[in-house]
Amino acid sequence: MQVPAPFxxxxxxxxxxxxELLERHGPEARVLAxxxxxxPMMKLRLARPDWLIDLGDLxxxxxxxxxxxxxxxxxxxxxxxxxxSAQVGRLLPIVHDAERVIADPVVRNRGTIGGSLGQADPAExxxxxxxxxxxxxxxTGRAGERVIGMEEFxxxxxxxxxxxxxxxxxxxxxxxxxxxxxxxxxxxxVGDWAVAxxxxxxxxxxxxxxxxxxxxxTALGLSGLATDAAAVxxxxxxxxxxxxxxxxxxxxxxxxxxxxxxxxxxxxxxxxELTRRVLRSAAERAGAGALTAxxxx
Amino acid sequence: MQxxxxxxGAEVTRDVEPRLLLVHFLRDTLGLTGTHWGCDTSNCGxxxxxxxxVPVKSCTALAAMTSGHEVRTVEGLAxxxxxxxxxxxxxxxxxxxxxxxxxxMMLTARAxxxxxxxxxxxxxxxAISGQICRCTGYATIVRAVRWAAAHxxxxxxxA
Lengths: 297, 159
Fold this sequence. Notes:
The complex is a heterodimer of chains A (297) and B (159).
Chain A: E1 8-11, H1 15-25, E2 29-32, H2 38-43, E3 51-54, E4 64-67, E5 70-74, H3 79-84, H4 86-91, H5 93-99, H6 105-108, H7 113-119, H8 125-132, E6 136-141, E7 144-149, H9 150-153, E8 154-156, E9 159-160, E10 167-174, E11 179-187, E12 194-204, E13 210-218, H10 227-231, H11 240-253, H12 264-285
Helix pairs in contact in A: 11-12
Chain B: E1 2-7, E2 10-15, H1 22-29, E3 48-51, E4 54-57, E5 70-72, H2 85-92, H3 102-115, H4 121-127, H5 138-150
Helix pairs in contact in B: 2-5, 3-5
């Protein structure tokens, strides 16, 4: 039987209350959202907090708000909420691509976007999605809130800029005209962690050339974005040829490790192929016309 | 700590350890052993119960987290002697087989039918994709859910 080690439990009544509880109960207090990362880690004694601060009642952190050029997503918004939102699917199709392959529908009923980012598992899909979309994370402490980019938020595997006494309260996604985005993952079986995955977002200029591009990889040993791969796309018209080059550069930027999910050369092959595929989808969704095909592409 | 929740329509209050998982609260504290306990790792789905009508893997929730909420288990599907159409469907279409995954499958099916009374095969398969039938009897489970969709007003047990 897998049971967590003993701990004390408190349910927060507001964000301010959660912050107060975190401070009062010290460095071994942890916040609990959906519990689908933290509780399994506690069962395995990979985490052993003294206190759990349950955020489950904080309806104020479960929202999806269009606010000018931003879509603001509360930290307690579940995977199921994101997948059920037609607005998210329309504005940020990469989110729906990723959500469809995160765990399974029952797990998605509990897991939250804030929890996923806070866990910062290197094989976690939404972190890549947020990188690619250049999302900003709102971190709230007792002194107020700060809004930071993903490059600052990510500090490494299982480590983020959200300090012990702070809360991730919101994730903000820029909504950009003539943009498209996509995510594709290869998994051993439905709902598993990625063998490898790639995400991309493109913004087209009025003349149809690529004005902005971002490419991210999951479970492939790349932290942050594949900047060299994205750079070759800028100013070009979407084409099979330039996407193939971006795929090669993304694969070169990856540093996968061999594990039970596959050897290095296979994963590097996936980095290249998946990058190409998500760029094609992103371009199509951004409204680019038919791509120029190249032989052997 | 004290938890109070509604389980199958009745309010229950118990003193529990904060670390008590919902699956063990239901099975051991309340004696509702219809909820099965399987992989313990939120993979197999036999422990699925409805919390406020939403399917949840009860091996990966604390009893404390569901305090103040409504829980429905397989024991709460039938209304007295009248089976839920999902239960009747599992009988009619041989959805049970070994029976281990059945409680979780039936509750997920109930939640699906509550929001989508006429799901097609793909929608049913998607809804149960977080649950494993090691008899691999998915075809009959899907047919059982379809049977329930086609007979929403089953009111009597057909013994």
